[in-house]
Amino acid sequence: MMLPVKPPQSFQLPGRCIEGIDEDIIQTIEAPNSNHFLFITKTRLFVYQAKPFAPLACHERTAESIELFGVNFGIRDNLPLGTEVKGFLTGQFCDPVIDDKRFYYVITKNNFLLVYELYTKTSENSVFKEYGIPLNLPSDDSLLHRALDDDMDDEVLTVFSAKENHKVIQNGYTISKQKGFLQFMKNDDIAEELPIRRTELKLNVVLKFDHQIFDVIGIITHDIERTEHANQYLLVLFEHGLQVLKLEDFKLIDNKLIHVINGKKLIYCAGEILVLSYDEQQLSLEHILFDQENVKSQNIALKGPSGVFKDLVMFDHLLVVAFEKCTIYYDVFDKILVSEYPAITHVSCISAISPDTMVLLTENNSVIFMSKWGNILLSIPIDESQFKILHCSLIDTKLLISGSNGTLQLWDLWKKLDSSLSNFRTSQVFTLLNDNNDILLYSPMSDSTNTSTFQTIKLPTKTVNNNISTCKTNGILTLMAVYVGNKDILLINFLNSNTWISFDQMNIKNIDWLGDDYLLCHVTDEDSDKEMVKCYHFPLLNDGSTNLEDFKTWEWEVPQGYQLDNFYANTLSTYKMLKFTDEREDRDDASKKVFVTSEILMVLSNSHMIIFDALSSVHPTGVNMVQKFHQYAEYNFPENSLRGLKWIYRYKEGFIAWIRDQLVIIGQQEDKQWRFQVAYDRVEQILEIYEDNLVLLSGNEVLLYDFAHIWTVDDPLITTPVIEEEYPISISLDTATLHNISCITTQKLTKLSISHGVYLDKIVDRNLTLGVEGDKIDEKYHDLKHYKFCLEKILSSKVLEHEDLNSILSLIDTYDKNSGGIKNEVGKLEIVGNCLRKIETKHWDYLFENLKLTPRDLITKCIALSEAKILGTLLMVFLNYDEGDSESKQEEVTTKSTKRKNKNNKNKNNKNKNKNKNKEKSHTNGLKESDSRETSPDTSVSTILKDETVIGQVLKIFVSTATLSTTKEQAQEYWDFALQLIRFLRALDSKGNTTLAQTCLDMI
């Protein structure tokens, strides 16, 4: 997830170069490994440094060039460093860095390729180390080390004064340190500057083609044996096929054509080059088989016409393609169409900004932040009078949106870090961070509605170039571990006192908490190239040690021949006792009991797994002391079966795992072979794992399960939809409350806020449907804050649908019985009063019929119990009903079986209305055919409101309660009730035929 930190900064390109040609920024492209944004107008190519944002180079085309080659149309680049393409070449690897040069390809309208050469001394190492921008590299460790070990001499921008011949700007900042354009990232608290690197741009060569160019991908390779020898390849997509061009110094050496019909877009995904092909009748993805010079076509059957292609985006293995009329999700690994949705908006551009978030630019000039599976996080309309948005790109947390008239907007974004799924005994912690060293933590407390703000933590540094690769808090929010990847620093924060301890020279791949104060770290030893998992114990009373080895309690070395893909630590909700070391009856020492408190699942290369159990003694205060790590088991799964694993838990005789976007059940069959069964798909995130419950965000719904239901692939216990622009981030199972994040953005302010939604009514209603006894339901949920509101909500919904009310009314009676005290039926009266207030009057009779009560009964029961608050609610309901438009309400018919009877009632009431506009109508609308008799005059609303005895009693209670109120606000509320009642009575008897209104005034 990514959301704006603040409103964007706006910039404008220099004035137009060629008169008569607009300078709209038609496409941007990011180069994260060199810290550059590139973008094109119809006549120019610009290079900007991304962090800090600053112009570096520009190439302006002449009028003659425009006339000959055509205006710029699109820009493409090479595949990133270390990229492999299946079947393309053997014994070679791809590398865009050749003598510090990078190549970019601008497509023109007249089918020319302008090949630009970008020369810079900015290496991957300096980008990561000095700017904190994570490297866009494959998982090959040798390539990563080669990039980080690069000793290239980085140059920085230096500016000299032309008149005085002395340095004005050095290292990207003014020598005198005065504030200016190049210092907008700097303030007085920042100690370390971010240099602006020297970059040169030149047009290398122009390539001409005879056919329309739809797309281009560049590939530059080295021989493994001769790294100084480079081979240059261009994949050029035409309507008739894919042309594979081998070049040397951009002179043609070899040329092959792979036949692809109607190809529109080239896509690189998971080692493959794909071609998106479509026409009005057919949509397909062509998997290019370079070794066979052929394609494997995968036709995609859609529900209806797709319309015009708009844009596409890749999420690992998942391809999301937006058309005019629909959006499709295609799994490249499994080669299947996963989902197809109607287009929610007219998309013009899509960009992936995190592994689970994308930004959509729409034709109506809106910026939409959206989750992978289509949940809208934030929608921001942009005033078209400012500029028309056309394209966007992202580097780390910097989103660049470009558009008409050379306008640029630079957005700083919050970035969500992966939450720890390890502790089943506490709630998860939601974590956000930004480039200004801010870390936001959110975790629900027991009374969740009082928790609506983030806890803000500031990193103990003044530098702004920190790449926080992981940040994990323990379950009870007393410790936080932060790893700054580009500086090899591990930070531990004691949250209760906000004190930090730091450990440097750490090469950490992953961290997670085991229990509350044990930290597991996956580390590598650069000298021996060994991988280990080490466990460190951080008691709350720190002795001030700065040597991390002093905290170490256990280490495990990855077996030779394997690599550790990841580890998963699960602190169990229920501890399993193993043995007693002293079983004498006269000694019950809890410290002598040993429990299995946690499990650690080491997932190695080739889907090999080793499981350790943490054996602990448990102190009566709940503190665990790990006594031993015991190797429990070792498993071999089918090759690549755990690819994309995000979480795994040992359950029964198998495992429950989150693999890619699916929740998978892994079990052994009779032949001892492992069976992988997809239980639930489109899993966007796991919101909570608590005790034996698991809460998923799947597609556009939040689903609540227990592990037993997952194992048998049953329906969820609870399903609740995701609300637009209120994205679920946490859940409180003890209060049945869902916590959502929303973002408010204006021209001057951006603010994150938390909202809460209660889903307890869904749980209670499901229990009623399953036939669970009312006493058991009430015993479990009676004391929850929102329980009575949920009973009211269930009753209202069932009345509106004319469903059977016996079970919910019985549960309401049970609630009253278990509420204590001598005043029974108070809860029922309040619930019914609120229900009447929320439902239309045409549904009243269905409720009264099932209650076996009349409006008079409700009023008299409240009088007998002196329940002024409920009387006030009922009075306002009845008065509003009475003062409404009787004719329009009478025209509403609730059931087909009562149409004829209601028509007769309507005619009678119309006569009454003509006689007296304020006369109360009968509320018989909605009676069943079997009970379609006239409402008794003694029980109708209008009769009650004219009953001097009843009204006098009601008024007396209002006056008495107002007089005895302890606060001004409460007294005012009941005086208002009393005066409202008198105003009604005077209007009802405007001719003064009764003394009721005067009697009430005399009482006051």
UniProtKB/TrEMBL annotation:
Basic and acidic residues biased stretches: 917-936
Organism superkingdom: Eukaryota
Region spans: Disordered: 888-940
A Gene Ontology term for the protein's cellular component: cytosol
One protein family per Pfam: RIC1
Keyword vocabulary terms for this entry: Membrane
Biased composition, class Basic residues, residue ranges: 897-916
Primary location class: membrane
GO BP terms, alphabetized: intracellular protein transport; retrograde transport, endosome to Golgi
RIC1 C-terminal alpha solenoid region domain location: 777-890
Subcellular location: Membrane
InterPro entries (alphabetical): Ric1 (IPR040096), RIC1_C (IPR009771)
Protein name according to UniProt: KLLA0F17259p
Organism: Kluyveromyces lactis (strain ATCC 8585 / CBS 2359 / DSM 70799 / NBRC 1267 / NRRL Y-1140 / WM37)
